[in-house]
Amino acid sequence: MTVAGPVRQDLISVVAIQRADVNTGSVTADGSISGTMSYTDKSVVLTSKVTLNGAPVTPSTMKDPTGKANYSLDWTPPAGTGTWDIYAFWMQATGQAPTPSATTNVTINYIDPE
Question: Checking CA distances to 12, which of 39, 60, 68, 91 falls within 20 to 30 Å?
Protein backbone atom coordinates (compact mmCIF):
# COMPACT_ATOMS: atom_id res chain seq x y z
CA MET A 1 0.00 0.00 0.00
CA THR A 2 1.29 3.45 -0.91
CA VAL A 3 0.73 6.29 1.55
CA ALA A 4 1.00 9.84 0.19
CA GLY A 5 0.25 11.50 3.51
CA PRO A 6 -2.76 13.56 4.52
CA VAL A 7 -4.30 15.23 1.51
CA ARG A 8 -7.48 16.74 2.92
CA GLN A 9 -8.72 17.82 6.32
CA ASP A 10 -12.40 18.64 6.81
CA LEU A 11 -14.01 20.14 9.89
CA ILE A 12 -16.97 18.02 10.99
CA SER A 13 -18.11 19.55 14.29
CA VAL A 14 -17.01 21.58 17.33
CA VAL A 15 -18.48 20.76 20.73
CA ALA A 16 -17.99 22.17 24.26
CA ILE A 17 -18.55 19.93 27.29
CA GLN A 18 -18.80 21.26 30.85
CA ARG A 19 -16.44 19.73 33.40
CA ALA A 20 -17.79 18.45 36.71
CA ASP A 21 -16.92 20.52 39.79
CA VAL A 22 -14.96 17.64 41.34
CA ASN A 23 -12.22 16.67 38.92
CA THR A 24 -8.95 14.82 39.43
CA GLY A 25 -7.80 15.36 35.86
CA SER A 26 -6.25 18.23 33.99
CA VAL A 27 -5.33 19.06 30.42
CA THR A 28 -1.75 20.18 29.82
CA ALA A 29 -0.62 22.80 27.30
CA ASP A 30 0.27 20.10 24.77
CA GLY A 31 -3.27 18.65 24.98
CA SER A 32 -2.48 15.52 26.97
CA ILE A 33 -4.68 14.54 29.90
CA SER A 34 -3.47 13.57 33.35
CA GLY A 35 -5.76 12.02 35.95
CA THR A 36 -9.43 11.30 35.35
CA MET A 37 -11.69 13.82 33.65
CA SER A 38 -15.30 14.05 34.85
CA TYR A 39 -18.02 15.91 32.98
CA THR A 40 -21.58 17.07 33.58
CA ASP A 41 -24.37 16.24 31.14
CA LYS A 42 -24.17 19.77 29.66
CA SER A 43 -22.74 20.21 26.17
CA VAL A 44 -23.07 22.79 23.41
CA VAL A 45 -22.54 22.30 19.67
CA LEU A 46 -20.39 25.25 18.57
CA THR A 47 -19.97 24.56 14.87
CA SER A 48 -22.11 27.61 13.98
CA LYS A 49 -19.66 29.79 15.99
CA VAL A 50 -16.69 28.80 13.78
CA THR A 51 -15.45 31.21 11.12
CA LEU A 52 -13.03 30.98 8.23
CA ASN A 53 -11.43 34.28 7.20
CA GLY A 54 -14.08 36.12 9.23
CA ALA A 55 -17.09 34.45 7.59
CA PRO A 56 -19.24 31.76 9.24
CA VAL A 57 -18.36 28.27 8.03
CA THR A 58 -20.67 26.54 5.58
CA PRO A 59 -20.72 22.89 4.54
CA SER A 60 -18.52 23.80 1.57
CA THR A 61 -15.96 25.87 3.53
CA MET A 62 -15.63 23.10 6.12
CA LYS A 63 -14.05 21.00 3.37
CA ASP A 64 -10.39 21.98 3.21
CA PRO A 65 -8.52 20.25 0.39
CA THR A 66 -5.21 21.79 1.57
CA GLY A 67 -5.46 20.91 5.27
CA LYS A 68 -4.22 24.45 6.02
CA ALA A 69 -7.39 26.50 6.53
CA ASN A 70 -7.25 28.88 9.51
CA TYR A 71 -10.52 28.43 11.37
CA SER A 72 -11.47 30.58 14.38
CA LEU A 73 -13.95 30.04 17.20
CA ASP A 74 -15.79 32.92 18.89
CA TRP A 75 -17.53 31.56 22.00
CA THR A 76 -17.50 32.42 25.68
CA PRO A 77 -18.97 30.00 28.24
CA PRO A 78 -21.91 31.32 30.26
CA ALA A 79 -20.75 33.20 33.37
CA GLY A 80 -20.43 31.14 36.52
CA THR A 81 -20.67 27.76 34.76
CA GLY A 82 -17.16 26.51 35.52
CA THR A 83 -14.68 25.00 33.10
CA TRP A 84 -15.57 23.82 29.61
CA ASP A 85 -13.46 21.67 27.28
CA ILE A 86 -13.76 22.22 23.53
CA TYR A 87 -13.42 19.33 21.11
CA ALA A 88 -13.04 19.74 17.34
CA PHE A 89 -13.81 16.73 15.16
CA TRP A 90 -12.02 16.39 11.83
CA MET A 91 -12.13 13.99 8.94
CA GLN A 92 -8.76 13.52 7.33
CA ALA A 93 -7.93 11.63 4.16
CA THR A 94 -4.95 9.33 4.53
CA GLY A 95 -3.77 9.38 0.93
CA GLN A 96 -3.58 5.58 0.96
CA ALA A 97 -3.77 3.69 -2.31
CA PRO A 98 -3.50 -0.05 -2.93
CA THR A 99 -0.26 -1.14 -4.57
CA PRO A 100 -0.04 -2.75 -7.03
CA SER A 101 -3.31 -1.79 -8.64
CA ALA A 102 -4.24 -1.42 -12.30
CA THR A 103 -6.73 1.35 -11.51
CA THR A 104 -7.40 3.88 -8.77
CA ASN A 105 -9.73 2.36 -6.20
CA VAL A 106 -12.04 4.22 -3.83
CA THR A 107 -12.64 3.24 -0.22
CA ILE A 108 -16.08 3.86 1.26
CA ASN A 109 -16.13 6.69 3.78
CA TYR A 110 -18.96 6.00 6.22
CA ILE A 111 -18.68 9.43 7.89
CA ASP A 112 -18.88 11.86 4.96
CA PRO A 113 -22.56 12.50 4.07
CA GLU A 114 -21.64 12.70 0.36
Answer: 39
Instruction: Convert the pLDDT of each residue in 15-71 to its tens digit.
Output: 999 988 887 787 777 878 888 888 889 999 999 999 998 899 998 888 887 777 889
Query: 38-48 burial, b if ≥16 CB within 10 A, otherwise e?
Result: eeeeeeeebbe
- In sequence order, which residues have a C-beta less than 8 Å from that of residue 6 and are 6 or more positions away? 67, 92, 93, 94, 95
CA distances from 33 to 24, 42, 81, 84 (A): 10, 20, 21, 14
d(CA 58, CA 75) in angstroms, rounded, equals 17
Question: What is the C-alpha separation between 94 and 90, in angstroms, rounded?
Answer: 12
CA 78 to chain centre: 22
- pLDDT value, residue 35: 82
Q: What is the DSSP string of 3-43?
A: E-----EEEEEEEEEEEPSS---EE-TTS-EES---EEEEE
